[in-house]
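Board notes (copied after class):
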Amino acid sequence: MPLPVPVPRCCPACASPAQELVREHPLAAIEGVSLHAGYRVVACAGCGLVYADGIPSQAAFDRYYQDSSRYENNARMGLPGPVDQARYAAIAAELAEQLGPRLPLAGLRVAEVGAATGGLLAELKRAGFRDLLGIDPSPQCVRAGRELFGLDMAPGTLFEPLPQAPFDLVIAVGVLEHVRDLDRALRNLAGAMRPGALLYLEVPDLEGFRRTNEAPFQEFSTEHITFFTRRSLANLLGRYGFQADFGSVPDRVHGGGSTMQVIAGGFRLDGAVRAPVADPAGPAAARAYVRLCQDQVRPELELMARLARSGQPLAVWGAGTVACRLMASSALPEARLAAFVDSNPHLQGRRLAGIPIQPPAWLGTFEGSVLVASRGYAREIQQLIRAELGFRHPVLTLDS
């Protein structure tokens, strides 16, 4: 199946077509799954917003998220892990603290778009919110939210009328960075909100990319296609009548095996359209991140070259962004690759750059080494391969 056709993209914040190249970012494709074979990271020559160009239409992204959601995790039956649960509890507490003194929480009509299996909504219910609706493109996630937490859930996207509108509070956590057609999405959200309603957002912070412990270039992932600073996020939302309301709390850093600094806060719908303010910090942060990653990637490139020269059988654990990047920009394709191994059932049976993707149980009969294509969770994955799968051959990490 061919990849979706790329469509030129103008700046989401100011609609300018003028752009400056930050990085050509190639990624190998997974047949029948991948949205693209990489993209161009560019900065708007007008307002400075950093975004991905050379990507397909929003319709291709909608199909991808409907068919390939990772959140109905089979291992936990859709339940959020401890890191996500703590994150959701912190968001619920923040919203209760900000809104409680102004309005009775139980009377607020609340919708979360991109709700996954409803972990955040469950925390909001515990915090005193009662009128809650979760919307997600994945039918499996909608079903899980109903069964796990007893939530009111509906299938849908940012581009369809929100059922039960209008709302007093709309939440989009970890959503906008995934959206190609931000113009249509934000017009739709504004149209589903009462005047004076609140939009609560959380997005990765471009200026914090240099502090992540993830693999090089991991923040330029397959799915993340717009890269925000506080200024560029305010520019985007100002175009649709939103004004920053709160967000003075320190940016949360997600714990666990990996860290990511985020921008989190509420934006009030007051209807006043605001002209963008130039944001030189965004392009500067993106270029600094590229330079940092270019330094970090050198040991990886040396390891891939050694593995290719060894001629030994090799399997790669993980068919995500790291593996796609290594297959597109290192000597890994020259190694004696037997398979990729991934626990995501949506990927099993597919091929990444022509190499089959197998379930973890496949390692039971594999006689060779395993390379863990992850950085934040590499040690945990090593332990899983050893302890749970009983694998006795070498297990390498990217810093081996």
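Comment from the instructor: The chain has two domains: 67-284, 299-396. The chain has a mean pLDDT of 92.
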